[in-house]
Design brief:
The structure is a single chain. The chain is built from eleven helices and 19 strands. Helix 8 (about 135-160) packs across helix 9. By secondary structure, it is of the alpha+beta class. It is elongated. The chain has helices spanning about 5-15, 15-20, 30-35, 65-70, 80-90, 105-115, 125-135, 135-160, 170-180, 245-260, 270-285; strands at about 25, 45-50, 55-60, 75, 95-100, 120-125, 185-190, 195, 215-220, 225, 230, 235-240, 295, 305-310, 320-325, 325-330, 335, 340-345, 350. The chain is about 35% helix and about 20% strand. The strands form six sheets. It has a six-stranded mixed beta sheet, with helices on both faces. The chain has a three-stranded antiparallel beta sheet with strand order 7-10-11. It has a three-stranded antiparallel beta sheet with strand order 8-9-12, covered by helices on one side. The chain has two domains: about 5-130, Creatinase/prolidase N-terminal domain (Creatine Amidinohydrolase, Chain A, domain 1), CATH 3.40.350.10; about 135-350, Creatinase/methionine aminopeptidase superfamily (Creatine Amidinohydrolase), CATH 3.90.230. Bound molecules: zinc ion (2 copies). One zinc ion binds near residues 296 and 339.
Length: about 350
């Protein structure tokens, strides 16, 4: 349901039109249309004008849904929304049309150029993704709930003895997925990772029929989706008494993760946040075994701006919602990753994923 905050978001984009040197923004990336209107269907486009006469388009399948979700905007019903909006912009003789160059295909751009030949097409430079990086409190509330669902699902799985030797990664993963749905997730946020023993050393392992064994590190990376928003959490447990090497690696990752979380300050350079965690892993001698970035933004997409990594750029702002997820992976033996989702706040980061980060032996 479109509400005031959708209008506020459109106004924030509108305020950028001058700086982007465009007269209107043609938004065709669905997740961005959803962010700006509340519409959840699979075909849509939106034009945001400097004067506020914004227009929304979807096709006939979504006529009723659009009436309910986007009651506050003029609605056009057309199959090819990008083309229909371009035709309209052509009749209005706007000189400069902003479009989402990172998502429009080469064919799509050809069609836009042919449909609106009198306008100059200019990139919006991912302006909507830039807005989305900073969450409003409505979004944070959904993210908080999604994270709480994941917390409860894992707690339930542990409590009922679902994580044990003799079960396959598949079985355990499906049970965890089911528990997230039971606790109110509309769906899982992404394919749940359950990785036991040597598989835990594969950062993005997909569950297999491998049977969990005593002595395994078992890594879970999973999340719930709620209202379109995703949670993202990783915990690594051990089956039975942890071996010394498992304790050592776990302690290194746990401390690196703590330092990464502490680094989440307004104005902090994303590369410095990454380094705060990574330097600890390096000093412990495992620098080569931590091959990925520290974290990423999370919201309507599981991975979105900002990139919190040595490969990233820019600084953190208040109400950005990001993950902190260092890992150490020893090929053939096992790996540990600990991941939380947090909100950048003036008085220090707000933790959304609450499950204990201490080494848990089952
Ligand atoms: Zn994750
Ligand atoms: Zn993540």
């Amino acid at each position: 349901m479109a509400t005031d905050f959708n209008a506020v978001r459109r106004d924030r984009l509108r305020a950028q039109l001058d700086g982007l040197e465009v007269d209107a923004a043609l938004v065709t990336r669905l997740v961005n249309v959803r962010y700006l209107t509340g519409f959840t269907g699979s075909n849509a486009a939106l034009v945001v004008y400097a004067d506020g006469t914004d227009v929304f388009c979807t096709d006939g399948r979504y006529r009723t849904q659009a009436t309910n979700q986007v009651p506050d905007l003029e609605r056009v019903i057309e199959r090819n929304c990008a083309k229909a909006m371009a035709e309209r912009l052509e009749t209005e003789k706007l000189a400069r049309i902003g479009y989402e160059s990172h998502s429009v295909t080469v064919d799509g751009l050809d069609e836009l150029s042919a449909t609106a030949p009198s306008a100059e097409l200019r990139s919006l430079h991912q302006a909507v993704e830039g807005l989305r990086a900073v969450k409003d409190e409505e979004e944070i509330a959904l993210l908080r709930q999604a994270c709480a669902i994941a917390d409860r699902a894992l707690a339930d799985l542990i409590e009922r003895g679902g994580i044990r030797a003799g079960r396959s990664e598949f079985e355990v993963g499906r049970e965890l997925d089911g528990l997230m749905l039971t606790h109110g997730a509309e769906e899982r946020a992404f394919e749940t990772i359950v990785a036991g023993g040597p598989n835990s050393a594969v950062p993005h392992h997909r569950p297999t029929a491998r049977i969990l064994e005593r002595g395994d590190l078992v890594k879970f990376d999973f999340g719930a989706q709620l209202g379109g928003y995703h949670s993202d959490m990783t915990r690594t447990l051990v089956l039975g008494e942890p071996a010394d090497w498992q304790r050592e690696v776990y302690a290194v990752v746990q401390e690196a993760q703590r330092r990464g979380r502490e680094g989440l300050r307004i104005g902090a350079d994303v590369r410095d946040v990454d380094a705060a965690a990574r330097d600890h892993v390096k000093e412990a001698g495992y620098g080569d075994e931590f091959g990925h970035g520290l974290g990423h933004g999370v919201g309507l997409e599981v991975h979105e701006a900002p990139t919190v990594s040595y490969l990233g750029a820019g600084t953190l702002a208040e109400r950005m919602t990001v993950t902190v997820e260092p890992g150490v992976y020893l090929e053939g033996r096992g790996g540990v990753r600990i991941e939380d989702t947090l909100v950048v706040r003036a008085d220090g980061p707000e933790l959304l994923t609450m499950t204990s980060r201490d080494l848990t032996a089952l």
